[in-house]
Design brief:
The protein is built from 15 helices and 12 strands. By secondary structure, the protein is α/β, with parallel strands linked by helices. It has 2 domains: 247 residues, Type I PLP-dependent aspartate aminotransferase-like (Major domain) (Aspartate Aminotransferase, domain 2); 134 residues, Alpha-Beta Complex (Aspartate Aminotransferase, domain 1), CATH 3.90.1150.10. It has a 7-stranded mixed β-sheet with strand order 1-7-6-5-4-2-3, sandwiched between helices. The chain has a 5-stranded mixed β-sheet with strand order 8-9-12-11-10.
Length: 403
């Protein structure tokens, strides 16, 4: 006896499913063709049965797709899968990771609100807060990431949001997310955590008390350097505001990119496990090299927050920072001497990438701002990929031989 397929229903009951099952199956709804894989809906708009049906859908009185600027079945599957993995009520996909930050702040903050931001954030994030959000009347101050008392002391009556990266880019600095969430709750502010470096495979900020998670899906969620995208996840009441911003402003994720990200999620935990293993080996090796002044990687017992990382992450990530005493000249000679590593500012790729943050990812910041964030001229960021680790070590040795 066969059961007739019901188009549009969820793939299966995943209420008690584990992470890897959710990464493969969450959010999928089969169509009339009973397809096994996730379908790709490349359409700008949708057809309605009648004028009345169109009016009801536009008004939100009836379910249905309206316009792909803010709703698309492929994108919805990606959003529902991320929400399931992060433990969020709802997720909203955007055109890039920076668009995810933009949508979060524009949706939930207003002129006159005050936002506290960690000093240890990506250079473009600093530019977004300083050059653009401040222009529209949002107050922004910066706080040392790990200093909970500093966060509490910097709060004002109008503090609306805390924004952090943990681990940070590129120094792998962490904050006690549970502790900072408690400070945010005292203030009545939202704690937003950029979870890009860990992904939900290694860390779940919402379970630790954060209110909102953002990602650059361009990084590990894709995993192969193919597409740009971002995502915001949290409670439905917050995400409705983000959807409203997308509906009006349009920093929308394309259906094709969402489909690629769905394929990336299927192997996320497997990839992150290997990324972390390779990074641990290389970090330990780099720390033993006399020419290297310091290595930044939370998987090293020498890292001041090693135990915190062990308590709130299931892995230490794949970004390793290290400093050379010779400043920019030594860093550039090291980078230029490598032959296999990709010299690019992207990360989260199966291919290992290497860059000089002071002249790339943080190059637009004023020198004093870079130094306050710990970005000096001798710093190199290595985003460890999935190659044979001995080949990676050999290429790094070429860099060492050049300084």
């Amino acid at each position: 006896m066969t059961t007739e397929w019901e188009p549009g229903r969820l793939d299966s009951d995943l209420a008690d499913a584990g992470f890897d099952t959710l990464a493969v199956r969450a959010g999928q709804r089969r169509g009339p063709e009973a397809e096994h894989g996730e379908p790709l809906f490349l359409t700008s708009s949708y057809v309605f049965r009648s004028a009345a049906d169109a009016a009801a859908c536009f008004a939100g009185d009836a379910p249905g797709n309206v316009y792909s600027r803010y709703m698309n079945p492929t994108v919805r599957t990606f959003e529902e899968r991320i929400a399931a993995l992060e433990g969020a009520e709802q997720a909203v996909a955007t055109a890039s990771g920076m668009a995810a930050i933009l949508a979060t702040v524009m949706s939930l903050c207003s002129a006159g609100d005050h936002i506290l931001v960690s000093r240890s954030v990506f250079g473009a994030t600093v530019s977004l807060f300083d050059k653009y959000f401040k222009r529209f009347g949002v107050e922004v101050d910066y706080v040392g990431l790990a200093d909970l008392n500093g966060w509490r002391a910097a709060c004002k009556p109008n503090t609306r949001m805390f924004f952090v990266e943990s681990p940070s880019n590129p120094l792998a600095e962490l904050v006690d997310i549970r502790g900072l969430a408690a400070v945010a709750d005292e203030q009545g502010a939202w704690l937003v955590v950029d979870n890009c470096f860990c992904t939900p495979a290694l860390q779940k900020p919402l379970e630790l008390g954060a209110h909102i998670v953002v990602h650059s899906a361009t990084k590990y969620i894709d995993g192969q350097g193919r597409c740009l995208g971002g995502v915001v996840a949290g409670r439905s009441e917050q995400m409705k505001e983000v959807v409203g911003f997308l509906r009006t402003a349009g920093p929308t994720l394309s259906p094709f990119n969402a489909w690629v990200f769905l394929k990336g999620l299927e192997t996320l935990r497997l990839r992150m496990r290997e990324h972390c293993a390779n990074a641990q080996i290389l970090a330990e090796w780099l720390e033993q090299q006399p020419a290297i002044a310091r290595v930044y990687y939370a998987g090293l017992p020498s890292h001041p927050q090693h135990e915190l990382a062990r308590s709130q992450q299931s892995g230490f990530g794949a970004v390793v920072g290290f400093e050379l005493d010779g400043g920019r000249d030594a860093a550039w000679r090291f980078i230029d001497a490598t032959r296999m590593l990709s010299i690019t500012a992207n990360l989260g790729d199966s291919k290992t990438t290497i860059t000089h943050p002071a002249s790339t990812t943080h190059g637009r910041l004023a020198p004093e701002v870079r130094l306050a964030a710990g970005i000096n001229e001798g710093l190199i960021r290595l985003a460890v990929g999935l190659e044979d680790v001995e080949d990676l070590r050999a290429d790094l040795q070429r860099g060492l031989s050049a300084i």
